Amino acid sequence: MSATTADWLTLDADPKTPGGQRDKRGGSRKWGSPFTYFVALLFIGVCVAPVLYIVLGGFRTNSHITTHPAALPDPWVLGNYEAVLTSRTFWGEFANSVIVALVSTVGIVAFGLMVSFVIARYDFKLKGAMYSLFAAGLMFPMVIAITPLYIIVKNIGLVDNLFGVIVPQIAFGLPTTVIILVPFLKAIPREIEEAAAIDGTSRLGFFFRMVIPLSLPGVVTVGILAFIGSWNNYVLPLYVLNSDANYTLPLGVQAFSSQYSSDTAKVLAFTSLAMLPALVFFSVFERRIVGGLTGAVKG
Amino acid sequence: MRNTLGADAATGRRSQGTPGGGDAAGPASPSSPRAATRRRGRARARLEIAVLSGPAIIMFLTFVIFPVVLAAFYGFYRWKGYGAPTDWVGLGNYKLILTDPAFRQVLWHTFLILVLSLVVQGPLAVFLALLLNQKIRGRSVIRVLIFVPYVVSEVVVGTGWSLMLQTNGALNDLLQHIGLGSLRADWLSDPKLAIWTLMGIISWKYIGFAVILMLAGLQSIPDELFEAAQIDGASYWQIQRRITLPLLGPTVRIWAFLSIIGSLQLFDLVYIIWGPYISATAGTSTMAIYMVAQGRNAGNYGYGSAIAVVMFLISLVVALVYQRFVLRRDLQGAVTEGAA
Cα(B173)–Cα(B165) distance, rounded to whole angstroms? Predict the structure, then answer.
């Protein structure tokens, strides 16, 4: 799913999409608000409760989970989290996830920005075809071609190697990136480019000195999506990484939960620590992501 | 004369700025030195295009497009995954798919998930978005919280839900506590129930995304329209029905498209909660699950590849048809026609 997670953004980031970031509340101010708050709270409760169950479950004891499956921690114990946080397994997998996510993100942003720049600012025959090629990539999610993809990774000798995850992830991250960034780069006024040209800046100079800073908001959006997508990716590591030492956190969670299936509390602690970075990352940058949705990508 | 020269110099400069674009601007005799400069400029531009787009295109073709081509190739063989495929069976795998009752079953599950996702999440998301689009306190906090299930990975969500839904798990315990003990059930393995459990988890995981998308759509509707309608004395419901819903159309259509494509490729959640074998008996396996079960788990790589090709074709046809007939106005051919 992670490959498709970001696709909506791309479709909405079309430059012709109406709207901006203005805050609009519609003409609905007379609505009785208690009902609204009630439904909103109920909705939030449904969304958050299962996640809270995982987080709080990590503070419980196994016997308590067995006797009272749906209860708050009583007594609260820190032992499960401590055990996970002091285990080499967790930190090893954490480090692998961080490496994979960071390198993938940098790759996706760098290569994506380069090719988007070409599509947005150069005139050449194959431009339309190039854009279509990447746009069509949205319909090639990783799952469908996972077996041949694995065979290709195997043939270039990257099985059980973090780069065997990183390189395909960059390739699969490109369509979304191109579709978000092209309208962005197109929106940079010609005049700026001409001014730069008159001042004797080359096209590449323009790319490095003007395009990168000006497209930063779009780059940040793309980067966040790439990072979260990589952090949560499951199917590719499942195929490519065989040895425990190379596992990323999603694989780690699965391995841990089957290995310690009787120690539910510790599994829950492990699981909630595994999701924490993506959650924190998301809450910090939430405005950017949702902003991207409303067409604010145009900067 | 001086004026024309100046103009020509300017176009020359611009053509360096926009390589290729110079062709249309200003006539230049081919033998003039300016044309030579332009030729050099164009060669340089070509080099830049190649250097800047080369890495992305090579990676994309190698890891995204080529695997699909390979899958199409393997699909013509009976192949166990080691050595080069030699046992050519032509369309044999595809004929097998057409008569395979297990495939028919996973196709049905996938179809059910696709339709139910649209029917359940769509109206609910529009309703919640209308509700949350009002001036209420803590809107930004609400936005973050409803997005949580979407951001948390499938593995985490799957692990959590499978623990909660066990027969002696939290959900059944909760039902017991609130006096609904008669509703306790074997949520995960009862074949009559499991697909609905899966639908519940899917709706839970992806509804926040739908709501956020709809909220964004709502915010792009100009305020003036609401104000004008209010001045004309329209009621709240009239405004929603006559203005908001029609203008939300493009957002709903794009959401539906993404939901359909997502449903057709559903894999992670089912694989994590049920695994390739139990999902078949519990009645939750999808096309992607069956493909992996046949390929990676059973070693029938040829057959698995044929299933992948069928999945891809279904997705492609659905996407093209949807674009042609439903998204026509919204996307302006982004996928089929390319950048304008």
Answer: 10
